Each structure stands twice: as C-alpha cells, then as structure tokens.
Amino acid sequence: MARYKELFEFWIRSLDSNGKPNKPDVDLYNHYLRANLMMGATAGDLLDLVAQMEEFALLLNTASFNLVLKAMHKAKETEAAEKLLQRMELTGNESRPDDESYDLVIDMLFSAYQIDAA
Q1: What are the tens digits of pLDDT across the range 78-95?
Q2: Most CB within 10 Å of its CB: which of 12, 25, 65, 94?
Q3: Which sequence ranges are marked TM in the entry (predicted)?
Q4: What pTM was estimated for this model as a whole?
Q5: Could you give the CA distance from residue 25 to residue 77 in angstroms, rounded to a whole number?
Q6: Residue 15's CB: how many other CB atoms inside 10 A?
Q7: Is the CA virtual torsion 42, 34, 71, 46 positive or negative?
Q8: How far apart are CA 4 and CA 84, in angstroms?
Q9: How far is C-alpha 41 from the chain's CA centre?
C-alpha cells in the first residue's frame, strides 16, 4: 500500500507528455484517500488531502467525505463528524450524505451516549 501511495504522490508532481502537470480525477483521489485510511491516516490527514483535492479544483463526492467520516469514526471524533455531515448536507448533489454517511455518524453518537443528537 505504501508503494501505491508513493507512486501517486510522484505522479501528481510529474508532467504529462505535453509538459503540463498531471491532474487526477476525483475517483483516483478517492483511491488515494482509501489507501491512506488503510495505512492508518488520521481524519486530520485525510482532511489535508481533501484540501489538496480542492486545490486541484476537484468536485468532491460522497465517497470522498465518507472516507473521512470513517477515519473520524475510528477515532471517535463525534463533533467533527457532525460538522462534516452538515457540510455535506449544504454542498452540491455530488457530495450529499448517503446511508453510509448517516450510519457512521449515528453509530458514533450512540457509542458516545448522545442518543438525543442521533
């Protein structure tokens, strides 16, 4: 997994055959987010990668945010997860929360005995 991460990081810093910087799409970046999550990246690390995605002018989708929510779930970052879920609800159709988004946040709230918030 570390090898793929290194390869991706090298690729995005490289130039294509026309001499222009390589530009990843959201699906490729989501694979990178998943690889980082599988290697133990924190939610903060993933949020930094989400900021990089925004620098590439990529339109984040639900899968992008769900990967961050999974890291928050693992770290029991309930308050941050609630805020991210609200952000998802306010943004465009591509990143609206789905069943997985709500399941992750509700599970955290129940685990933290915040039944009313769930």
Answers
A1: 999 999 999 999 987 889
A2: 65
A3: none
A4: 0.88
A5: 28
A6: 9
A7: positive
A8: 27
A9: 11
Q: How confident is the prediction for the chain on average, in pLDDT? A: 91
- Interatomic CA distance for residues 102 and 107, integer angstroms: 8
* Sign of the alpha-carbon torsion through 45, 46, 50, 52: positive
**Residue appearing with tokens 């991210």:** 84
Query: Residue 16: which residues within 8 A CB-CB, separation 6 or more?
Result: 22
Q: Which of 42, 110, 100 is nearest to 71 (CA)?
A: 42
Q: Which residue has the tokens 């990178």?
A: 32
Domain-wise residue ranges, the chain: 2-111
Q: Rounded to whole angstroms, how far apart are CA atoms 56 and 5?
A: 18
Residue 13 φ/ψ region, left for φ over 0, alpha for ψ in the -120 to 50 degree band, beta for the rest? alpha
